[in-house]
Structure formats: structure tokens, C-alpha cells
Amino acid sequence: MTTPGTLTVDRYNSIATITFGHPSGNSFPAGLLQELTETLENLGSDDSVALIVLKSEGDGPFCAGASFDELLAVSNLEQGTLFFSGFANVINAMRRCPKLIIGRIQGKTVGGGVGLAAACDYAFATEQAMIKLSELAIGIGPFVIAPAVERKIGLAAFSELTLCATDWKTAFWAKEKGLYQNVLKNIEMLDDALAEFTQRLVTYNPEALSQMKKALWQNTDHWGTLLYERAAISGNLVLSDFTKNALDQFKKK
């Protein structure tokens, strides 16, 4: 049975901080992705919330992506499409949310976690926050998160990140390409900078912030269809002999 993980919401001074956690590198089983989607939708319609911060538990990885245990359990196209739709739901919820979402990226980030960072409207990271898109190495691809990541870092950088599927890119590479806006030496400095930034931002006109959010995400309405089409591509690929063999080899390590 997959460990469900945890998700909490703390509120302070019109700022809602969502904290997710899971013992497997803060990865996301399907239930936790659904909970995050619903939480974002609820906070988006809450007039007492002006700003959202997205973070994960601990001082290790920010997010290891989707649950590998659930990936291994996929046995048909319907299951596969549903599995990969989890991050599509979250990214679309982040895109549609009328509140700006600020990411706190304290450590290594893989796969769907990179998609989460990309779907944030602004991101703070530490020097330890390296990124990797390893999907091609197991016979699938980062199809669902591709629009979000490419929107932030551009096609050339996305191509490099995707095709070099076994290579970690540094936090400074991610900042240079536009995924992160600030890279701090450690978590303490990250939290200080994040607090200063959010406390200032929350004093601005809420309507101006909401309109700015719309402007930042213009021309993405088609993602409501696109990301699920991409989920079906990955759902089909995960059933291929190549991917099954790659996953078998991973299990034996």
C-alpha cells in the first residue's frame, strides 16, 4: 500500500502556506496530488487569502516527483492516463488559481517536482536545489509538465534538461534559465528572503495582484485539454516493453 503523505495549510497575515510531505523524497502519490489540487482551488476562492506559498517538509529533497510505487503498479492505458493526470490537475489548478503562488525550493527536485517549481509564479531556492528530468531514462518523457517548464526556461533549455536525462543541473543553471528567481546559500537565508518578499507583496492591491496573475498566464487556456492529451501519451508509453524492462532493472538496484 502506498504511503498517503501529508499536506497542511498554515495562514498568517493573508498568506497561506501549503506544506506537503512524503517519506519517499516528498514524492506524490495520487491521493496527495488530488488533495493539493483541491487545496489550491479552495484557497483560490478564499477572500481572506492574498498569497500562497508552496513548500515541502524537511531540509532534504523538495520533491521526487510522482510516486514510483504507483508507477510500477500501472497495468493498462486507463490507469496510466489517470496516473499521469495527477500532475496535470495540479499544474492546471496552479495556473487557474487567482492568487500568486510563491515556491520555496529547498533541495533536489526531479520530474514532476520540476513541473511544480515551474508552475509557481516566483521561486526561491537554495544552492542545493538541483534539478533533473529523468523520464526518458525509463522510457517515458516529461510530457505533462513540459508546457509549464518550457514556459519558464524556453525550448532550448527544456530540450537540454530533458535529453540529458541522467544529469543534474545546478540551482544556478536553473536560475540562469528562469526557473528560479533567487538562489540563496542555505535554508535560513532562503526563509529570510522569502519572508521579506511575501510580506512586502501582500501589502499590494489584491486586485492588481490577481490581474497580474492573469497576465502572467495568458495564452495557456488550452492547457485544460493539452495536459491530459500529454498524460495519455505517457500512460501509453509506460506500458511499452522498453519501459517495463527499465522499471524492472530499477527495482533490482
Oligomeric composition of the shown chains: single chain
Just give the CATH class. Alpha Beta
Strands ordered across the widest β-sheet? 1-2-3-4-6-8
Q: The biggest beta sheet, please?
A: 6 strands, mixed
**Helix-strand makeup class:** alpha/beta
- Calculate the terminal CA-CA distance, rounded to whole Å: 21 Å
Helix content: 40-55%
Task: Using the CA coordinates, give the radius of gyration.
Answer: 17 Å
Low-confidence stretches: none
Number of domains: 1
In the CATH hierarchy, what is the superfamily? 2-enoyl-CoA Hydratase, Chain A, domain 1
CATH architecture: Alpha-Beta Complex
Number of distinct beta strands: 8
User: What proportion of the residues form beta strands (DSSP E)?
Assistant: 15-25%
Instruction: Tell me the number of helical segments per DSSP (H or I, 4 or more residues long).
Output: 11
Categorize the overall geometry. globular
Q: Please state the average pLDDT score.
A: 95
- Determine the CATH topology: 2-enoyl-CoA Hydratase, Chain A, domain 1
Question: How would you describe what is shown here?
Answer:
α1 (30-44) links the parallel β2 (15-21) and β3. With 253 residues, this protein is of the alpha/beta class. The protein has helices at 30-44, 68-73, 77-96, 112-119, 146-153, 155-163, 171-177, 187-201, 206-216, 223-237, 241-252, and strands spanning 6-12, 15-21, 51-56, 100-105, 109-110, 122-126, 131-132, 182-184. The longest helix has 20 residues, at 77-96. The protein has eleven helices and eight strands. A six-stranded mixed beta sheet has the order 1-2-3-4-6-8, with helices on both faces. It has a single domain, classed as 2-enoyl-CoA Hydratase, Chain A, domain 1. The mean pLDDT is 95.
